[in-house]
Amino acid sequence: MVMQIPAPQGEQPDATMPGMAVLAGGCFWCTEAVYLALEGVTRVVSGYTGGARETANYRAVCSGTSGHAEAVQIYFDPARLSFGRLLQVFFAVAHDPTQRNRQGNDVGTQYRSAIFAVNAAQQQMANDYIAELNATGLFGQSIVTEVTLLENFYPAEDYHQDYARRNPDQPYICAVALPKVEKLRHTFPQYLHAKES
Questions:
Q1: Distance of CA 165 to the CA centre of its chain
Q2: Catalytic (active site) residue 27
Q3: Looking at 27, 30, 62, 174, which residue is catalytic?
Q4: pTM of the full predicted structure?
Q5: Residues 6-30: pLDDT tens digits?
Q6: Residue 78: cis peptide before it, omega within 30 degrees of 0
Q7: Contact, 143 vs 91, CB < 8 A?
Q8: Which tens digits make up the pLDDT trace of 73-89?
Q9: Which of these, 27, 65, 68, 71, lies nearest to 51 by C-alpha position?
Q10: 67 and 55 in contact (C-beta within 8 Å)?
Q11: What is the DSSP string of 28-56?
């Protein structure tokens, strides 16, 4: 049975503008695959945020000492998709927000659950939504997602971009990313690109 995560109680137009969000929910290959399937998403970039420019590379980030999180920068059309809907998918499908500094077998601060708000409205809405979800008790434990203002985002190496689509038979993608996309199809079919439904 799929857990039904409610949408945020209030949408804030200022949180949806300028049509960009940065979310970290474990391996960026998996998070990217989920968001590319959403109607209204125009582009997703896998990358690193939370650390310095000098350590914004896969080898350094995988060490767990760079301060970076693997994250995705999501560009979306505000006329078709809201920041609140992105957050609903983030908490319901993209990852487990109750796991601190890990997602499943991926362990380390680079896999932390985090929302890097691009403005104060996003930061406030994310904090309010986390409080709403914690009040429901749906997750059985507290959400550990960090919410901070975005300072910098560094795109990952080219081979990481659109990775799941280009490597559908890769074992990690089969085991982790594709089940999340399938969960999205079952949980929110109304949010999908026509080609994904």
A1: 17
A2: yes
A3: 27
A4: 0.95
A5: 999 988 889 999 999 999 999 999 9
A6: no
A7: yes
A8: 999 999 999 999 999 99
A9: 68
A10: yes
A11: HHHHHHHHHTBTTEEEEEEEEESS-GGG-
